[in-house]
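Discrete fold record:
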Amino acid sequence: MYEKDNVGYNTQYPRETGGGIKCKNYEICEEVLPIWWYDCKGRYVCTNCDIMFGTWCNPEHDVYKTGKGVLPIVDDVECPVCLETKRSVSQPNCEHTICIACFKRCYYGERSGAPEFPYSKEIEDMYYMDESDSESNYDQMKWKTNYPLIEIWEVENDKWHDECMYKHEHEEHLQKCPICRL
């Protein structure tokens, strides 16, 4: 039943191929899973959500994580971060809620400021599909020759990504509930 009501589409699982299944945290992570995911994993939570919000352990490294996995979403709650009343998500390790936008900013880092792809959405989609399918330098050079702004964009995007990763690694306190710090 979940599969029937939660079909999702993205560049990897387009409408033409029937799409995929939305992660149960889709509103937060926007991940679309392959149709066979449940048969393999036994639930509809993407790997990223499972790692960040789920329950798992690695006794070898003395790491134990207890989270909810699927994060409940509620309407019309005042966010303690931005103070706006809107759709909110429960924190993974407690029952406090914050709005989805603040949650994404805290858990995934700042998304704004990313350099825009210098060509149309169609070319961007083709570029990413070609990049993921191809291992040859010829295909990569084809893009740089036919679309010279891509090389500049790649440098700017890599720099922006590195800055985001640095902030994310050095601001671990943001990945905790702003109220109880769990």
Summary: The chain has a mean pLDDT of 84. The beta strands are 7-8, 20-22, 32-33, 56-58, 63-65, 73-78, 85-90, 97-99. The longest strand covers residues 73-78.
